[in-house]
Every structure is written in structure tokens, then in C-alpha cells.
Amino acid sequence: MKALKLFSISNLRVILFNLVVITLILVVFEVVMRKLDLPGFDACKMSHDYGTADPELGFAPVPGSEVAGSRLNELGLRGPALLTEKASRHFRILFMGDSTCWGLGVKIEDTFAAIATRLIAEDNPDLKVEYILGAFPGYSSYQSKVMQRKLLPLDPDLVIFYVGAHNDHVRARYFKDSEIPLRSARLNASWHKIHLFRAIEGFTGTVCHSLFRHLRSRDARSRVPVKEFHENVLEMVGSVIKQKKKAIILIPPYSNHSLRRHHTIPKYQKSLETISRELHIPFIKLQNIFESQDDNLVYFTDLFHFRELGHKLTAREIRRIVAKDIIVEQSGI
User: Fold this and answer.
1) HSE of 248, CA atoms in CB hemisphere, 13 A
2) 8 Å CB contact between 133 and 102
3) pLDDT for 230-275, tens place per residue?
4) Concatenated DSSP letters of 107-165
5) Which of 102, 167, 185, 210 is the most buried (most CB within 10 A)?
């Protein structure tokens, strides 16, 4: 009995010693991670080069900062900063989209937003035609939807959409874009202040995503699955129609390389065309324009961002549709 008691005390000491050692190791890990500010990821796992953390967008542009060689204006956008109140006889165009719409790789004056604005101005000399570039690199239709809510108070007369080109159908890290608000809320939870818990969350989330992603369809693994993409675009266009404004949908073109790699692309294209027809919104199938061109002339080497020629072709089509289907007039006249 005495031996059993001694054995139990000995075991208890070993257990307590091990617990103390494990605790000390965890404390050391926590201190080191705090000193090094690790793990260095946020809810959206995006590079800080693209802006600051935002509870809805995941990452948001910072006014006055530099992104891909361009200085952002007071609104945190590329291009001219327009006054909140629209001046008399001004026709304002809002362009919504991703890095292609933003003009990654080309000068601001060579983007299809800037070129189309100049062409429409030439056709309507009695109006001052101006544009807002509400696009940002890395943004999906979900983020464009959130961004549009912030920009519609600027009272655009025409909204041109370029969404679904790349960021929606690419593979998610381990959660969908629509989960960004929930993930962002977790960043402010008390447990998230403990870096060790953050590391465990990130590790388990990444491992589970890697293990089970092959059990899901390609669409389910996207940042924005087709169904959610359709709902996002429907909400954006619906908001424009509700305000009695005009809209044009650009259906993105895809290189042969992209079509081979991403088999869900036609579903996104079909979704845009379906919404356009159902809501009687003019649309432009850029694929029909680009397919007669050499991919290397209209795209950069990544085969989805436009070179100057791609922007010019797109701008000309916008001009054609505006002249044909959109009555360009100042609001209220």
C-alpha cells in the first residue's frame, strides 16, 4: 500500500513536471510569436501591398498610398478624384471591377475606362463626361458589390461592370469571399489576441482545406461560386436600376490558356449574359472581339490582364453601345 502511494506521488510529480515544461514551451512560443508578429495573416490572407484590413472587403485601398506604381486619390481609387456633388451638365460614369478594369500594367490614360470616357465625350461635346474607377486589384464580385454601395452616393449616370474575369473562379485559400465579414469579426474576438490560437486556427484550416478540397467540386472551391456570383451581380445591377441609372455589363474575354485551365469559366459568362437579358441591360461579349486577335497582343504574359490593345478594343465597344443603346444626357434634363 505504501509502495502504491509512493508510486502515485511519483507519477503525479512527473505529470506536473511535464505540464510545467509544456506550459513554459507554449509561453515561449507565444512570446516569440508576439515579438515577431506571427502568424502574419489576416481574415483575407492578402498582401498588405493591396491596402489595409477592412471588416467587409477583407482588404481596402488606402487614400494617398501607392499601389502597383499608381498613387491613389482621396477616395482611395485610381484616377481622378471627383467631388461628391455632381456639377451641372456633367455625365458621370462609374466603372466597377478588378485589376484588369483598374488597368494593372498600363498607364491610367490607357485604361478602357479613361479611353471610353474620352470617346464618349467626343460624341457628346455639350456634356462634361467624367469617370470614377471603382475597381481594385484582387477584388471579386463580392468585393465589387460592397465597393459599389460606397460609391453609388457619388451619383453616377452610367455604371459599367467588368466582373468575373479572374478572381471569382480562382481557388479560395480555405474560405469563400462571402465569409470575409465573419472572419473579420473573429479577428476582434478575445481569443484571437493569443497568437498561438491564431497559429492553430490557420494551420488546422489550411490542413483541412488541403485534405478535403478534392472531395468538393471545382465550383465549390472557388472564391465566389457561380450561384453567389450570380446573386452578387444581380444585386449590383438591381441597385443601379432602382436608382433609375443606366448600366452596361462587359462579359470578360478569356484566353485559350485560361479556358483550358478553368472549366467553370463558361458558367460565369452565362450568368452575366442571363442577368443582362433578364434585366434588359446592354452587354458586350468581349470574347467575340478578342478571339480574332493574337492572345499575346491583347493580354500580358499572365494571359488575362489587358495590354493597351485590349483596353482600346474594349473602350471602342463601350463607345458603340453607349451611342447605340444609352441615351447620354445630363441627369435631370
Assistant:
1) 28
2) yes
3) 999 999 999 999 999 999 999 999 888 787 777 889 999 999 999 9
4) -GGGSHHHHHHHHHHHH-TTSEEEEEEEE-TT--HHHHHHHHHHHGGG--SEEEEE-SS
5) 102
Residue 78 three-state SS = strand
Mean pLDDT calculated for residue range 160-181: 89
As to burial, measured by CB atoms within 10 angstroms (0-12 exposed, 13-18 middle, 19+ buried), residue 245 is middle
Helix (H) or strand (E) holding 67: strand 66-67
Q: Which residue's C-alpha cell is 441609372?
A: 245
Q: Stretch 146-173: mean pLDDT, rounded? A: 93
Nearest to 165 by CA among 90, 236, 265, 243: 265
Q: What percent of the chain has pLDDT over 70?
A: 90
Task: List b or e across 322-332, with b for residues whose CB sees 16 or more CB atoms inside 10 angstroms.
Answer: beeebebebee
CA trace torsion 279, 281, 284, 287 (10° rounding)? -10
CB 38 within 8 A of CB 199: yes
What are the start-end ranges of the H helices in 37-111?
99-102
Q: Smallest Cα–Cα separation from 177: which of 234, 135, 237, 225?
A: 225
In 3D space, the residue among 129, 127, 130, 131 whose CA is nearest the CA of residue 89 turns out to be 127
- Residues 224, 141: contact at Cβ < 8 Å? yes
- The amino acid at residue 74 is E
Q: What is the DSSP letter of 193?
A: G
